[in-house]
Design brief:
single chain; 319 residues; alpha/beta; Spore Coat Polysaccharide Biosynthesis Protein SpsA, Chain A; ten-stranded mixed β-sheet
Length: 319
């Protein structure tokens, strides 16, 4: 059989109707040269039966059920083992949606620009029930770049800033990514599989940011100038969980360091894992060090100033 170009990894746990709709949006893509691998993390609802039904109807879809619930991040990480057999790789969370040309336009970028390691689109963030944003969350207020209506006349918000980490210089890319990128939605873009060599999703909350940081150091990101990815906000998203609940959600081994400290260490280490020149390594290390110091200083100021403490802080993780 001819090898398909794109591997789509779908880690899922109790996906329900959101999972059905997400799969439908993938199967409606204008670019059809892909295989979908579903990793069911021991769901207790009807997700397994739904996934088997999709696999029975389409030879591109493959279903696997884990023997036990291994946690979200190990389930996501396990999908990366499949990437080596394909030119491109993409994760798809069970609760997102894709407009029909998402894959086509992202793959076109990667085919025409070999220096790009990840292509993604502008993001719309909507409520899962009626397509309207739950705009009470400060994360979305901070990230809003425009307000417009979709094809059904419903108001939606786009996330920004736009076109970050697209420079040739890795130091510039690292600085833009660490200091200006509001959320980690690009992690659900289409990734060049060759760039994934040595990159992993570590088992702590916020490791999606570290994962993207390592990719940014390997090559350019590229944002497609269309809103083709829809992130559905709902009450069960992981960013609303307590720290203890987040660790349980992530899964994997327990670490002595907090997720915040582990992320800081990994951001400092990332330049030395990316195959950069010595000068570029130390410049990028300096970018990460200054970023960490600035954020830590902000936390100290908020802890001692009631007025600063009342200011909303942006989340930096994807659901």
């Amino acid at each position: 059989m001819k090898q398909r170009r794109v591997c789509i990894g779908v880690p899922v746990y109790n996906g329900g109707s959101l999972f059905v709709e997400m799969m439908g949006s993938l199967l409606a893509q204008t670019f059809a040269d892909f295989d979908i691998f579903i990793a069911d993390n021991c769901s207790t609802d009807g997700t397994g039966e739904i996934a088997r039904g999709f696999a029975d109807r389409d030879r591109r879809i493959h279903y696997h059920r884990n023997a036990t619930n291994i946690g979200a991040y190990p389930n996501f990480q396990g999908m990366l083992k499949l990437a080596g057999d394909f030119k491109y790789f993409k994760w798809a969370a069970h609760d997102d949606l894709y407009k029909p040309t998402f894959l086509e336009k992202c793959v076109d970028v990667l085919e025409s620009e070999p220096e790009v390691v990840l292509a993604y689109s502008i993001v719309e963030v909507v409520d899962e029930t009626d397509g309207r944003l739950l705009d009470q969350h400060p994360f979305y207020k901070l990230g809003r770049i425009n307000s417009h209506v979709d094809e059904k006349g419903r108001p939606v918000w786009m996330m920004g800033p736009l076109h970050l980490a697209e420079a040739v210089d890795p130091t510039t890319r690292y600085s833009e990514f660490l200091n200006r990128m509001i959320a980690c939605f690009p992690v659900f873009g289409v990734i060049r599989s060759a760039a994934l060599q040595g990159v992993e999703l570590r088992p702590y909350f916020g490791a999606d940011r570290t994962f993207l940081a390592e990719l940014v150091l390997k090559g350019k990101l590229r944002q497609v100038d269309d809103c083709l990815f829809i992130n559905r906000y709902h009450k069960s998203v992981s960013r609303l969980l307590s720290t203890k609940q987040q660790q349980a959600f992530v899964g994997g081994s327990q670490k002595r360091l907090s997720a915040q400290r582990q992320q800081q260490i990994d951001l400092l280490r990332a330049p030395f894992r990316a195959g950069l020149s010595a000068v570029e390594c130390w410049r990028c290390f300096g970018v990460a060090a200054r970023h960490i110091v600035r954020r830590e200083s902000g936390r100290v100021l908020r802890s001692i100033s009631p007025s600063l403490l009342a200011m909303p802080r942006p989340e930096r993780h994807c659901p």
